[in-house]
Amino acid sequence: MAYWKGVIEEYRAYLPVTEKTPVITLKEGDTPLIYGPNISKKLGNDLKLYFKFEGLNPTGSFKDRGMTMAMSKAAEDGAKVVVCASTGNTSAAAAAYAAHAGISCAVFLPHGSIALGKMAQSLIYGAKVIAVEGSFDKALKLTRELADKYPVTMVNSNNPYRIEGQKTAAFEIVDTIGDAPEYHAIPVGNAGNITAYWKGYNEYYKKGLSKQLPKMCGFQAAGSAPIVLGKIVEDPQTIATAIKIGNPYSWKSAEAARDESRGLIEAVTDQEILEAYQLLASTEGIFCEPASAASLAGVIKKNKQNYFVDGQRRVVCTLTGHGLKDPDRAVSICSKPHVVKPELDEILKVLNL
Ligand code: F0G
After folding, report:
1. Would you tell me how many other CB atoms lie within 10 Å of the CB of residue 102?
2. Distance (Å, rounded) from C-alpha 238 to C-alpha 226?
3. Which residues line ligand 1 at a C-beta cut-off of 6 Å?
4. Helix boundaries (H) for 151-288
5. Atom in ligand 1 nearest the alpha carbon of residue 321
């Protein structure tokens, strides 16, 4: 049996690497595409819902696909320090891959807006963690200024190697189902991932490896939806902290993905996100982080409007990050555990037996 070698080795022919590139990998990729029988049935309309569970990457998010590329190229170029601004997942991936590569790493996080698990990751992987008093957008601007003036390598999605690595998720989907799905639903924050998937689907299509291209359906959180509103949001608000971004870097290419695919980018409310988040865990057994559930929340909303009518009505939702990244959110929306004395009678009472 062949072992999975990580996205660079598996998709080398599609990536800008050479024999000289040292491959920095934690064996990211090869994440499962899980069919959701229960939610598909609940939504009706002959929908076939699949979940690309990116939470099962080495640091628990899709960022590892881009980071293996960015860090390998940084190592090839002899980088000593890598930096990024992040809502928590990019920083976790940067810190882990930098540790693996033996490169120093500094991460800039919006103070008070980072989920607990993500903070723990950046700290334990040994990055220098800098909490900036202000939004992600401010932290990103500072990081760009720093990288312009000092000898540090930026590994945000302005680094084109990040997009190259992330496009491999689209390859895996086509490799798994034998074609592109009719629709692809995805949360949108800094807008790199929707850009990357669209690039990946197009590359496979042009090589004749898929017969069709999906309509790209991006979803932003309503309180933080600059692309939907068509203007920068100065003070974005949402419980989905991963996508709490008011001025996305890849704004233009996300619009291009939407328009070229004849898809859409729309908003979902925090309430809709949380309902989708809980539904996915409790009916399919898949625990993703709140921002990730924006993709399913959007599908539920668009299905009510009978949006999904093409072909076999296959909809792939990218679930970008693992639920354990943000345990506080899960605990806060669920009912509390029953505390009982260590007696069988007490348990029987709780179970109504
Ligand atoms: N979902 C999760 C869990 C994320 O962490 C992000 C982005 C997105 C969706 C949106 O992806 O930015 O490519 O549109 N997180 C970045 C970070 C901003 O710093 O971790 P995008």
Report:
1. 8
2. 13
3. 61, 63, 86-90, 187-193, 242-243, 289, 291-292, 320-321
4. 160-166, 168-177, 192-206, 226-229, 251-260, 270-284
5. 3
Task: Give the per-residue pLDDT at 10.
Answer: 98
Q: Which residues pair with 265 in a beta bridge?
A: 218
Predicted local confidence at residue 253, as pLDDT: 98
User: 111-132: per-residue pLDDT in tens?
Assistant: 999 999 999 999 999 999 999 9
Tokens of 21: 């590139």
Residues 351, 274, 298, 319, Cα dihedral to 10°? -80
**Residue 81: strand pairing partners:** 104
254 Cα nearest atom in ligand 1: 14
Q: Tokens at residue 155, please? A: 């590994």
The radius of gyration of the chain from alpha carbons, rounded to an integer in Å, stands at: 20
Using left for φ > 0, alpha for ψ between -120 and 50, and beta otherwise, residue 82 falls in: beta
Other C-beta atoms lying within 10 Å of the C-beta of residue 123: 14
Rounded Cα gap, residues 122 and 291, in angstroms: 19
Q: Please state, as a whole number, how many other Cβ atoms lie within 10 Å of the Cβ of residue 132.
A: 18
DSSP state of 262: T
Name the one residue in this structure whose structure tokens are 């860090």: 71
